[in-house]
Amino acid sequence: MLNFGLRLLAGMGLCCALTHCGTSSLGPPNMGGPTPGERAAKIADEVSGDFYYGRRYIVEKTRFWGYLRQPGQPWHSAKLVIFKEHKKTSPDRWPEDGPDGQRYAFDNNYEYRIRGYFTGKEDYEPNSNQFLPEFMLTGYEVMDSHPGWLFQPNDHYDRLRVTLYPH
Predict the structure, then answer these.
(1) Maximum distance among all alpha carbons in the chain?
(2) In Å, what is the CA distance from 98 to each residue of 23, 53, 89, 93, 162?
(3) Total structural domains in the chain?
(4) What is the dihedral of CA 162, 148, 116, 61, to 10 degrees?
């Protein structure tokens, strides 16, 4: 009987743990921004050309740069990329312990116009355990330093873990 009670208790604990894992512990959305309609209208009116729209995405200890998408395409079509900086260094190439505004990752969630090309290779990013497309950066310009949510209005950013995925 004791063995049955222990198994029942262990099963209940596992059930609680699995139930907790299935729910979001991220809290309320924290990125702000436009309504979905406003975002769709902005994308529909974008200038197109030989470049990508990029959104910087910082997660501590990772070395991916952020998300890139083609002009006119929704953000859910974006790819998380690793920059190759042989031709141009990334916008935030600053010391990690520099002063505010001049520190690596100062530009989290900035939106850029990015120039360059996909090399056709993938690089392994060990801290997020992902193989990601390699992008040769040749140029960039800041478009918006406060664009708001990335994939949907209820996005929640966490600097310590990957929480933003295309849906």
Answers:
(1) 72
(2) 37, 27, 17, 11, 24
(3) 1
(4) -30
How many angstroms separate the CA atoms of 53 and 111, rounded? 7
Statement: residue 126 has pLDDT above 80: yes
Report yes or no on 85 lying in a domain. yes
Q: Domain range for residue 161?
A: 35-167
Q: Which two tokens stand for residue 60?
A: 């501590």
pTM of the model: 0.81
Residue 147: partners with Cβ closer than 8 Å, 6 or more residues away = 33, 55, 109, 110, 111
Could you tell me the pLDDT band of residue 4, with boundaries at 50, 70 and 90?
very low
Tell me whether residue 5 is in a domain: no
Residue 99 lies in a domain: yes
Overall residue count recorded for the chain in this entry: 167
Which among 29, 89, 91 has a CA at the least distance from the CA of 57?
91
The whole-chain average pLDDT of the chain stands at 85
Contacts of 86 (CB under 8 A, 6+ apart): 136
